[in-house]
Amino acid sequence: MFIHTFQYTLKQLFRQKGALFWNLLFPIALGTMFYMAFSGLSSGETFHAIPVAVVLAEDDSATMFREVIDSLNEPGDDRFLDAVYTTEEEALSLLEAKQITGILYEGSSVSLAVSAEMSSATLEQSILSCFVEEYNMQYGAIKKIAASHPENLGAAAEALAKNTAYNTETTYCDGDMDEQITYFFNLIAMSCLFASTGGMQIAIKNQANLSPLGARRCISPVPKEISLCALLCATFLYQYLCILAGLFYMRFGLGVNFGSSMGYILLTALLGCLTGVSFGFCIGSIGRLNEGMKFGIQMAVTMICCFLSGLMVGNMRILIEQYCPWFNRINPAALISDSFYSLTVYQSHSRYFQNSITLVLISAAFCLCGFLLTRRKKYAAL
Amino acid sequence: MSTPIIKVENLVKRYRELVALDHFNLEIAEGEIFGLLGPNGSGKTTTINCILSLLSYDKGTIHVFGKEMHPDSYDLKRRIGVVMQNVAVFEELTVYENIDYFCGLYIRDKTLRRQYVEEAIDFVGLHEFRKFYPKKLSGGLLRRLNIACGIAHKPKLLFLDEPTVAVDPQSRNKILEGIQELNKQGVTIVYTSHYMEEVEQICTRIAIMDKGKNLAIGTKEELKRMIKKSEIISIEILDISEEAIAALKNLPHIYEVTFENRQLQVLCSGGRHNLLRVLNCLQSMDLSFGRVYSELPSLNDVFLEITGKELRD
Fold this sequence. Notes:
The complex is a heterodimer of chains A (382) and B (313). By secondary structure, chain A is mainly alpha-helical. Chain A has helices spanning 2-15, 17-44, 62-72, 88-96, 122-148, 153-161, 181-194, 196-204, 212-218, 224-253, 262-285, 291-308, 316-323, 325-330, 332-345, 350-374; strands spanning 50-55, 81-85, 102-105, 111-114. Chain A has a 4-stranded mixed β-sheet with strand order 2-1-3-4, with helices on both faces.
């Protein structure tokens, strides 16, 4: 009877177009939207080589400057300048045509000419200004040392060449610490909690006082516990497969970097699904509220949990942690999202396991509550 | 009566202040088509739900197949089929799958189940629609599917709770014929309806219910014998004098004569040849008349006389 009910429930679930949309297509669509929105944001932050014209002086002093320019003009990821050597007239015409950001003049010192009309390139103009200032300062220092202490010229050049860093960045994670990834984590958390709709249907379709189908099941010779277990397992499997499809789409379709702990991520999705289904089952089992009202409660609770876990406002979870930390310990959306986050941020898995155990306990509590509420054998009214 | 297949004793069910079943008693023998007849809200569905152990009740005992019925009486439930008043099928499953699913809750053996499902499909005449989803079926076909889901596992006792509500005449006839056929195959049937014609047509014994009470029980002939009215004679006539009406009232077994809208109605309380006597009387008074009808009392008349109201009030 278990397998019979399990098979037919799976069949039904996969044929529910509405459920497929909300459980599969909606998270995929939302993930794609996030991806497109975040791609636009990061493309604005990418550095491009600054186009400049270089007008060299007609003496030997230009050799050093030319070497510096050439090194900064070398093609590659770290290319700083997109320089072209030209005459002053041509450089001015290029600047007027807004094909370059500025003109570097080689003289007793290097000078910069920019166009006031290029308001869109103020950042690049500032960078060029800093570069010229830095070059002139270092060139002046070397010239001074060469005149006063020529024996120290080599050491001075070496000291200037060395770019001393006074602090270092240490990575404790193997994934992407990009803040934007938390949106994807929250999206998966939301998908997991959306599984509550399926859980709610289990309760409704298994109680004689809530649906004719429930009445038909109750008069069959299949014990309610077996029927409920089969329904819960089938719904859970269906929801998990939907989550997996969404997760794989984000990982391999959109290229979201979830780090190397994919196994743990799948486990969290599994626990999240379990929590979602059991939560819906519990809500669906409460009293004689009609289906619409139960659906309303379930959606409201899901969306509030997602909101407070930071799905809509990125730093919401941090705010909750600051003012109401206990809520983050029991909010399933926050727990799921935090489990993912801890996998990419922390080397230790203790926080991940702590969250996972909490999810298991919450699921068990919801399931127990649902079973207790639906256990009644006879109804006072149908 | 041999050991009853259903025995309900002194059943009381209250919904807060409302008494839905008031010391209700019932015995149904094996092989019967037993009709529970009563207006909406008379307690028919409540009775069935109590017998099926879906509803809790305040007092009384219920025995099915000689054993007390409990929610976990799975051995008893295995032998019971129910066709609910509301259609209870899955929208996402086809006709075949729906029947197979519900049959599968009773029958484990796949080969046997396949055979039973095919038989149920043939029985309700849904062979052409086996791959249809319920939303593609008409109201009548949907009701037939609902019946197939309740009978596919070949129950020994079948409850049919108003299975013909909102059904077209063709499907209704098909359903009623099917019920009689099932009974011939040895299924005991409990049939509830507020359509007296259906109950009269198929039921071997009938209980008339109102306000949670069992007002009368017996075969349709027994029920009709319980009331005073045994024949209703209607005659089209242009006009009739008070003297003529008085003369008709003096005839034996005639207890009421009314004349309205050129229609003379004569109510008889028994005896034979009443029609002949009435027509002879009219002829003797040189009264010409048109069409003449003679009707036997219906269950509605029984209900009317017992409760003072129409069955469909």
